Structures are given as structure tokens and as C-alpha cells.
Amino acid sequence: MADAPLPSRAGHVAIVGRPNVGKSTLLNHLVGQKVSITSKKAQTTRHRVTGILTTAVAQFVFVDTPGFQTQHRSRLNERMNRAVTQSLADVDAVVLVVEAGRTVAADHTVIRLLPAGASVVVALNKVDQLKDKDALLPQMAELSALYPFKAIVPVSAEKEQALDRLLAEMATLLPEAAPIYGADEITDRDERFLAAEFIREKIFRLLGEEVPYAATVGIDRFVEDGGVRHIYATVYVDRDNQKAILVGAGGVQMKEIASKARADMERTFGGPVFLEVWVRVKRGWAQDDATLRRLGY
Ligand code: GDP
After folding, report:
1. What is the predicted pLDDT for the residue at 295?
2. Ligand 1 atom 10: the closest Cα is on which residue?
3. Which of 118, 138, 171 is the last residue of a domain?
4. DSSP characters for 186-221?
């Protein structure tokens, strides 16, 4: 089979918006499964790559930005928001998600924080649940008055409506460039690595910043047997008190981490997963060569 021609545009894209507008749903429906990168290049961008979509015209590299704080006005929130604004200035295109038919104060806050001169497309999401489609035009006019958006596209992330139009608008905003990641660098096939990533991500999400930086995850065994993946993992922490936090009273915390990670694995791998996670205290694991080798560093 002849190789498909390479897309002629490539760049980094951030998806922003107030909570609950459908940002994760949009990312999932644009990109499909979770994707991880083997390349060291991933660490050279200042953002974490959350997904990659390579079409015939462009490679979209979606990146995480810290979430905007839209609730309270405080010094801390202002500082955090400045950090988001700065991180948005680094990407090639921004997708602002707003709920169709419903622009609220928190949307205005996010729009105020968009960096001047950014290339921003609005995805007016959830059109499928909008009864009065006539409400779209005034909303689009209202939004246009707030920021020089490159385009406003009504979509439904969940029902996958008009996502191709959204992508076409986004593609025009990306620079002409060769793909940033080659097909062989995008390891949606490296399930072992992804399994560790899923566990790490849940630890991070559920425990905030208390433990995650001191914790790392190793996959001890990964075997497929009769369509069931059996995955045995160990979380290494530095100190006893970190282990106590991670395991939680009666093991509830770890159970939740494991069960959420398992759900991600089953969705991504497309089959049942048996997951066992142990927590071990290994002082100075980050200094220990043998441990680091085992963990694949
Ligand atoms: P996020 O907080 O912005 O990441 O929002 P989520 O992606 O978690 O979505 C918030 C809620 O909106 C979820 O219950 C989604 O199922 C729902 N949702 C997202 N996209 C759509 C859509 O296109 N149509 C409808 N009807 N619901 C959607």
C-alpha cells in the first residue's frame, strides 16, 4: 500500500472553557482513545500532550492547560489565571467551548483571560440539546463582540455533529509544518506504559498534590489470558505516611484509584482487565538505579 501523503500543517491546540461545557467529551470524540508519546520531544513542549489527531490535512496535538479559576476572585486565582493565559499564548490554536444557547458569567471570565492576538475558535457545544435553534444567532453575535474569534461553530461533541467543520476551522490556524509526531512515536499500542499512566493519573486526580510527585508506578506483570488482561502494578512512595495516604482508611483510597484506572484501561484496551495494585515504601526510589531501570527510566 502506498504511504498516505503527509499532512501539511501541524501545531498545538488547547481546549478551554468553564467547567461542564464538554471539553473532555470534545477531546475524546475528536481523538478517540487516549494516546501517549514515547518521544522525548513530549517533554520539550511545556504542556502535557493529551491527544493527537492526524488527518489528511493537519496534525492536531492537543495539550493540557491548567484550568481557569472562574469561581472566586482572589489573589491566588488571579495568579493561576495569569499562568493559564501565558500557557495559551504558547499554543497555535485555542478552542473555546461554550454551551449552545447559554453564555454565563464564567464564560465571560474565560474570554477576558484569553491572550490578545490568540487564534481562537469557539465550539458552541451541545447543540443537540438546544430546543430553540434561533437562539444561536444572537449568541454568536454576542460572543463576536467580546473577542475577535476566528470562527464560531455550533457542534455536538457527544453526538459528533459538525466536528469536521470545527476541525477544518482549526486546521487553517495551524502553521504549515511537517507532523510533530511520527506514527511510530504515538504509542496507543504500548498498553503496559498506558496502564502505568492511568494509575498515575488517578493518583494525581484523587490526591491532589500531596503524594503524586513522590509516587511512581511500575508494572510488574502484564499478561493476556483468554481475552482478559491481568495487570499487576506497584506504586512506589518515599515514606510511610505517603503510603498511608495513598492506601486510605481500610484501603478505600487505593480501591478507588484502582477501580477508576481499571475503567480507563478497559475502555482503551477494549476488553476486561484484572488489576492488582500494591503500594510499597522504597526510600529514595528516585536515586536507586535498579528501581529506575525496572520502571523504564
Ligand atoms: P468538561 O468539564 O468541560 O470537560 O465537560 P465534560 O466533557 O465532562 O462534559 C460535561 C457534561 O456535558 C457531561 O455530562 C457530558 O456528557 C455532557 N456533554 C458533553 N458534550 C455534550 C454534547 O454535545 N451534548 C450533550 N447533550 N451533552 C454533552
Report:
1. 60
2. 20
3. 171
4. B-TT-HHHHHHHHHHHHHHHHHTTSSGGG-EEEEEE
pLDDT at 267 over 70: yes
| Residue 177 domain-assigned (yes or no) | no
**pTM for the full model?**
0.66
- 75 residue type, one letter: R
Q: Which ligand 1 atom is at minimum distance from the Cα of 156?
A: 23
Q: Say whether both 273 and 131 belong to one domain.
A: no
Within 6 Å (CB) of ligand 1, which residues are found?
17, 19-25, 125-126, 128-129, 156-159
Query: Relative to the CA of 17, which ligand 1 atom is closest?
Result: 3
Whether the CB-CB separation of 279 and 246 falls below 8 Å is answered with yes
Query: Coil, strand, or helix at residue 291?
Result: helix
In sequence order, the β-bridge partners of residue 16 are 96
Nearest CA to ligand 1 atom 12: 22
Place of cell 500500500: 1
What are the pLDDT digits (tens) for 138-152?
999 999 999 999 999
Q: Which domain holds residue 144?
A: 9-171
Q: In the chain, how many domains are there?
A: 2
Distance of CA 179 to the CA centre of its chain: 20
Inter-helix orientation angle 23-31/163-171, to 10°: 80
Quote the DSSP letter at residue 287: G
CA distance 182 to 54: 10
Q: How far is the CA of 31 from the centre of ligand 1 (A)?
A: 15
What integer pLDDT is reported at residue 111 of this predicted model?
94
Asked if 122 and 32 touch (Cβ cutoff 8 Å), the reply is no
The residue whose CB lies within 8 Å of the most ligand 1 atoms, and thus the one to mutate among 25, 69, 70, is 25
Distance 205 CA to ligand 1 centre (A): 19
Nearest CA to ligand 1 atom 18: 22
